[in-house]
Amino acid sequence: MKGLLLGLAALLVAITVNAETTDDTTDVKVVDYSKYCYYADVEYSAGSIMEQAGRKVQCVRQAESSDLVWKEYQRNQL
Question: Three-class SS string for 13-63?
Fold first, then answer.
């Protein structure tokens, strides 16, 4: 009887440990700088204008790499 209880307890511990270690559902967000600029984990499309740290910036295409980046906003840029 002791052996049966000990075996059952060991089985419960093993199941509990297995349940805790297999919960690795990490949502990895795919970033694509050729389509979006990112700020605070949010996607912004080309042409978006926002204020960051007290200055206006715009999401524009960087010529040398074709990626979208945040650049200082200038009115005549559009």
Answer: HHHHHHHHHCCCCCCCCCCCCCCCEEECCEEECCCCEEEECCEEEEEEECC
pTM listed for this prediction: 0.59
- DSSP single-letter state for residue 8: H
Task: Convert the pLDDT of each residue in 12-66 to its tens digit.
Answer: 666 555 445 555 667 788 899 999 999 999 999 999 999 998 999 999 999 888 9
| Cα 35 from Cα 16, distance rounded (Å) | 43
Q: How far apart are CA 38 and CA 14, in angstroms?
A: 43
**Which is nearest to 16 in space by CA: 8, 27, 4, 6?**
8
Instruction: Compute the distance between CA of residue 20 and CA of residue 2 in angstroms, rounded to an integer.
Output: 27
